[in-house]
Amino acid sequence: MKPGWIIAGMCWIGLTVALMFLLRNNILESFDRNDADQWQAWRDHVKEEQEGAVSVQRRVPSSELPPAFVLMQDHFAVCLTAAVVFSLLLFATFSFLLTGVLSSSTVIQYEDDDADPAGKKDAGQNDQVRVNPAGKVQSGPS
Fold it and tell me: Would you say 57 and 50 are in contact if contact means Cβ atoms under 8 Å apart?
């Protein structure tokens, strides 16, 4: 692996961590007293609704705080770890594919299934196909 890909991977991890912290700060700062009152009012509405005859049973949320707030406050380490691991796997996959696309190897080797059991090869059995820079195919024995 080339040093350029390692540096790009480290930058990718840094960007992922920075975005996760930015997301966490935005969620925690956006939650104020008004949001807490709205969440509690919604919970009370669901509780009142479930006491009557309803066609759909809905469970009243047990938390007094919204799920996004609880997730970013109590489980941030798990979210950060998952974000880093999955984004790094995505980066590694795409860098592997991009390296394969940009590589200069253009030799395709074909092998026939009817090889001699003694290990001897016929004259045209192991041919190579080369593609020159102009895109023309050249074939010949290996």
Answer: yes
Instruction: State pTM to two decimals.
Output: 0.62
66's tokens:
């919204």
Asked whether the beta carbons of 140 and 127 are under 8 A apart, the reply is yes
Q: What's the CA gap between 74 and 34, in Å, rounded?
A: 21
**CA nearest neighbour of 20 among 84, 69, 90:** 84
Q: What is the pLDDT of residues 74-87, one digit of tens each?
A: 999 999 999 999 99
- Give the integer Cα–Cα distance in Å for 136 and 108: 14
Other C-beta atoms within 10 Å of 86: how many?
Answer: 11
Give helix 67-74 / helix 3-30 axis angle, nearest 10°.
Answer: 130
What is the rounded average pLDDT of the residues 54-60?
Answer: 79
pLDDT at residue 5 is higher than 90: no
